[in-house]
Specification:
Elements (H helix, E strand, L loop, with lengths): L3 E4 L5 H9 L4 E3 L10 H10 L2 E5 L3 H11 L7 E4 L6 H14 L2 H4 L3 E4 L2
Parallel strand pairs: 1-2, 1-3, 3-4, 4-5
Helix pairs in contact: 1-4
Length: about 120
């Protein structure tokens, strides 16, 4: 089963467009009308939708770590620093994760990009 992605407001539109062009199953916080939600609510929403949360917001790393330490299940976080990866590489890495990983492999994990 392919991994579904959920992008927050920090992910550039060019990345979203590239993923959609590749046919990656995904939802954005913009289309889900969650752009102003707190980070912990956003992670809970992505988990509710059984989706990997894709972000460039370092605050979500602390939340994911806290959830790991406290045994709170989440569907995973894919994080990249805004200056550490190009748009093309981010699209390629996320498409690879969506196609090759299973939701079970990513559960309660943080994936740092680029791969």
């Amino acid at each position: 089963m392919p991994v579904r992605l959920y992008t927050d407001v920090h992910i550039p539109q060019a990345v979203i467009d590239g993923l959609l062009h590749r046919g990656v199953a995904m939802m954005t916080s913009q289309t889900d009308q969650t752009t102003r939600w707190a980070d912990d609510r956003l992670l809970a929403r992505a988990t509710e939708l059984e989706s990997l949360l894709v972000t460039q917001d370092a605050d979500l790393l602390a939340i994911a770590h806290d959830w790991q330490q406290n045994g709170i299940t989440f569907h995973g976080v894919a994080y990249s620093h805004q200056l550490s990866v190009s748009i093309g590489d981010l699209v390629t890495d996320l498409a690879l994760i969506a196609e090759c990983c299973s939701p079970e492999e990513l559960r309660n994990q943080v994936v740092y990009l680029p791969l």
